[in-house]
Amino acid sequence: MTLRVVLERPWLTFDFGAPQRVLSWAINQPGFVTSTQILWREVRNADLPEDLDVDDWLQKELASMRATDAVAFLTSRDVGAFHDVTSEIDGVTARCVATVGLSNAERVGARVDRSRKDWGTINLAVHTNQAISHGAQLEAMAIAAQARTVAVTEAGLALPSGLASGTGTDCIAIAATAGSLRYAGLHTALGEAIGQSGLCAVSQGVAEWVKTVRREED
Length: 218
Fold this sequence. Notes:
Number of helices: 3
């Protein structure tokens, strides 16, 4: 299977080359779905006025790309600032593509008023070469979320509520072939590969955001 990452502003595409089972809570196709690609759509406040039907708008945008079956992320982060990391552990590979914006950062268990901010958000998509069960894919999602959280907390971004652990609009997608592999925890090669690629990609994204966007805001 040939994986491709293609940047065509305002879109970023992670193409699998074949249908895969994707798990996410993406706005257009949440839950378990079958798709050949995951898309990022860069947006600005002007693109999404308060009275806009976002679901309808996004479907039309996807139709213009002939990608109505795609799982789609929305972000105000520059989609060109993506990070693409592949990890291989004992023949198991996990490729993570992530965009990282922290302009609406949050600490879990608390909320900050972000109504006047662009929603940069953290979006990461992970593909593995392993054929996995529904349960393993759910566990893989938890590992990717853990990697995201570690990357953000290690950056030490202080909020009134404490150190940031993510953003209010993060989204994660896990793509794989449907199969019988039952586990993807931290003790497995798959869990290690997902955690390693996710942690590295998000850490790189956090560092770039702090160096560029946050410096401009300060």
